[in-house]
Amino acid sequence: MAVKALPGDGLPETKETRESPLVVCFGEMLIDFVPTVSGLSLAESPAFKKAPGGAPANVAVGIARLGGSSAFIGKVGADEFGYMLADILKENNVNGAGMRFDPGARTALAFVTLRSDGEREFMFYRNPSADMLLQEAELDLSLITKAKIFHYGSISLITEPCKSAHIAAAKAAKDAGVVLSYDPNLRLPLWPSADKAREGILSIWETADIIKISEEEISFLTQGEDPYDDAVVYKLFHANLKLLLVTEGPDGCRYYTKDFSGRVQGLKVEAVDATGAGDAFVAGILSQLSTDFSLLQKEDQLRDALRFANACGALTVMERGAIPALPTREAVLNAIHAPVS
């Protein structure tokens, strides 16, 4: 029988995790049900493979798998799936001390439709799910304030009480001098309306130091403007922003700082499932920035770091599910030096 993780069940610090700068990821962790056959609708899919997911949790596991130090803060149900997710964090050396278990709400589920090109559509079961019920009083502030980077998305802003917990956690991090990293991770079906989504995502825009967005998210936030036009992207650049990253799937990414901008090519691979690719990319870049923020001033080194992050994303699309597909540092370095065909 699997050992059930208990609330507040953190990992003992090892020499490695103590020496690596900590990245704390805040938000949702859930179960993705991924179809065993691509290119069919949910109704037509014969079977689904359960895969742990949730963008902030994927990033936390991604960083740990790359050899970095990470922690996850969020809430799951006090149910079999919730305990399974806590165990997965533990197995992957993610500090779970900030994880909470709700006895009255279930762990969130998402059914994913895989199109034949590996892209996804989602159907969520959250009414309400445990992740939406995290309260400010349940935050592990000591974990947040000792982080080097505090990473989050926008799904945790959709409903109370989680929204207030999110804002309080980010404020505690900012006040402690922690770098804030934001991936809006737009999931329109979860918001009451498109306007509310735009407003919610932009409501915390100005506080982030690092933002990662996709081409689709640029079009959405600018109400249909061209995501490939630098002038459009710079509209989303704010005075305190240190790095804005735009991911372009197989084409790689673009980067924008106050002093320079450019594009880094992606690795070409056979896409099976795009779930978690953006999170793997974020894990790749944050794992490097956490150990050396001077990358933000050195374009050549930032480009190398983004090449590494692109490879993290590329390797993740070659397998179904997010967390199962996240690569090790060794796999990423091998892919960079001997590109995957």
Automatic annotation (TrEMBL):
Q: Which domain of life is it from?
A: Eukaryota
Task: Please report the name of this protein according to its UniProt entry.
Answer: Fructokinase-6
